[in-house]
Structure formats: structure tokens, C-alpha cells
Design brief:
alpha+beta; Umud Fragment, subunit A; eight-stranded antiparallel β-sheet; 5 helices; disordered N terminus; Peptidase_S26; hydrolase
Length: 317
């Protein structure tokens, strides 16, 4: 877009030597134009301004007029200022856009997609640590269990929940008669599952090397009748005497006539033991530790002391 600025008729400004351009009759005066081009900041428009002056003899330019080289490019008028401000605005917007895109990309890098869900790296680390700690405690220290049947009634009822610890058998002592244990059943016993999550709970009544026998409603270990205040009722079956093999234990339910235990499928390998039940935590009215009925079945109880009666002494007068 071009604008032409004619300075004809402005003799008062150019001096007396510059006549009016329109209608000038002096042939000695030659009309020349200086085209000053200013490129706007956007680069899309070219603005030209033509300045007309009278070229006098012996003079290269009229006084008061600046040549193209004398005029600074910054003094191109209000339009040039507008272009500069637009350029600055565009630059700031580009900087803001660049920073925004950088921030967005950094935010995206903080998330990981897991199973179709976006999870931040910090949350993923927290969840992984919590799962690892939970499984570590469950495998090495203790684990909760619930009672699904009446095989241990009245010590445990259906729906009771307990804690089984795993430290004692690892570092303190071996399994002992009277302990209530949780365990995986022997091979071929119970239901088989892919995750091997079938767990029983029974009481140890004999360990390796002990002889076990049930007759006349009484349990005998090493020929000694056992005192069992925790059972529901006396057993109504007969178990012929057997010896517990090395590395195994003999387990029975406290509800002797309603328990799937060693008197049916035989002794249990000690490697199948998961832990020792130590307390109940549900229901609330039953919270507390379990009574201790442990004893060594290989030591015969001491015989009662006989009361010695002194022979009568005759007293003579």
C-alpha cells in the first residue's frame, strides 16, 4: 500500500526557492521525488512516501528535508510503532506458548499408564512399597485368618478371626503339643487350587517319635491319658496306636467328632505349617490372647506322693 505525499504549494515551509509544484511554469525547476521505503515489522506491507521538492541549481536537496539515509527507520510514524508492539506481543506469546508446552510435557512425564489408568510416579512408588511391606509382614511375621467351620469349636466359632505369628517356629522353638496351628494340608488332602490357598487350623497333640492312640473316648499319647479341657466332647471313634514319623506332627480338632484331621488322613509334615495362632481380633467381645495348653507329652506326669502314716506308738505309764 502506497501513500504519496505531495509538498506542492508549501512554499512557506520549503523556502522561497521552492515554488508551487502544481502549475509551475519555470522550466529551470525540475521536479524530483525521493521515495523513502519503510518496511513494517510484519513484513507483509511496504509503505512508500514520496517527497517532492524543487531541485535548484547548485543544490542537492531542499533545506529542511531529510534524505532516505538521514531518516531513522524507527521514526516511521504511529503505524511503525503499532507494528513493533505487535512484534513484541507475538514474541511474548510464542515464549508463553513454548513455556506452556514445556510445562505440559513435563507434567505428562510425571504420569505412568497402568491398566488404562494414569498414575503419578510418586503414587506408584507408594503403592508398590505398601504392597511389598504388606506381603513381607504376611510372609515373615504374621498373617490374619478367619474360621470357616466348627472343627475347632468351642475354642473358635464360625466367623472368628485370628492372628497367626510366624516368628516362634523360625527362631524360638519347634512346634509343641497344645499349639494351635494353621497349615496347608498334606498332599491329596482337602481341595486343590491353583493358588494353593487351602488352609486348615488344628491343634497339635503329638510330635515326631510320640505314639498316639484313641480308645474308650480318650486320647493317649505315649500311653498317658491326656487332660483336654478345650475339647467339645469325647471322641466317639477308635484310633489304633501309631508312631508319629520324624519331621511330622499329629493334629486334631477340638470338636473331635466333627473334624477332618490326622485321625483320618494321618500325620502332617512340619514343612506345611504356616504359623501359630496367638490371639483373636474379631468379634470385639472375643478380642484377646489364646489360653496356653502346651506341654511335653514325652514326660510322664509325676506320681502322686504317698501319705506316710506313722505306726502307732504305745505310751507306757
Amino acid at each position: 500500500m502506497h501513500r504519496v505525499l505531495c509538498l506542492g504549494g508549501l512554499g512557506s515551509r520549503l523556502g522561497p526557492s521552492c515554488p508551487r509544484i502544481s502549475g509551475s511554469r519555470n522550466p529551470s525547476h525540475k521536479i524530483s521525488s525521493v521515495s523513502i521505503a519503510h518496511t513494517r515489522s510484519t513484513g507483509s506491507h511496504l509503505q512508500s512516501r514520496h517527497v517532492c521538492h524543487s531541485k535548484l541549481p547548485g543544490s542537492e536537496k531542499a533545506p529542511g528535508l531529510a534524505s532516505e539515509s538521514d531518516q531513522p527507520s524507527s521514526s516511521s510514524g504511529p503505524e511503525s510503532g503499532t507494528g513493533s508492539s505487535n512484534n513484541n506481543n507475538n514474541g511474548s506469546k510464542s515464549q508463553q506458548g513454548g513455556s506452556g508446552s514445556g510445562s505440559g510435557s513435563s507434567d505428562q512425564s510425571q504420569f505412568i499408564e497402568v491398566l488404562g489408568l494414569k498414575i503419578s510416579k510418586d503414587d506408584l512408588i507408594t503403592i508398590t512399597a505398601a504392597i511389598a511391606i504388606s506381603y513381607g509382614i504376611r510372609f515373615f511375621i504374621a498373617e490374619p485368618r478367619f474360621i470357616p467351620s466348627l472343627s475347632m469349636y468351642p475354642s473358635f466359632d464360625v466367623g472368628d478371626r485370628l492372628i497367626a505369628e510366624k516368628v516362634t517356629y523360625r527362631f524360638v522353638r519347634p512346634p509343641t503339643p497344645g499349639d494351635v496351628i494353621i497349615f496347608h494340608p498334606a498332599r491329596g488332602v482337602g481341595r486343590s487350587s491353583f493358588f494353593d490357598d487351602d488352609v486348615f487350623i488344628k491343634r497339635i497333640v503329638a510330635v515326631s517319635g510320640d505314639t498316639v492312640e484313641v480308645r474308650e473316648g480318650q486320647l493317649y499319647v505315649n500311653g498317658i491319658a491326656q487332660v483336654e479341657p478345650f475339647i467339645n466332647e469325647k471322641p466317639a471313634y477308635v484310633l489304633k496306636q501309631l508312631t508319629v514319623p520324624p519331621g511330622e506332627v499329629f493334629v486334631m480338632g477340638d470338636n473331635r467328632n466333627n473334624s477332618y484331621d490326622s485321625h483320618i488322613w494321618g500325620p502332617l509334615p512340619m514343612e506345611n505349617i504356616l504359623g501359630r495362632a496367638v490371639c483373636k481380633y474379631w468379634p470385639p467381645q472375643k478380642i484377646g490372647g489364646l489360653p496356653d495348653f502346651t506341654h511335653d507329652t514325652r514326660v510322664a506326669p509325676a506320681a502322686p506322693l504317698a501319705v506316710l502314716q506313722a505306726p502307732p506308738v504305745s505310751v507306757s505309764n
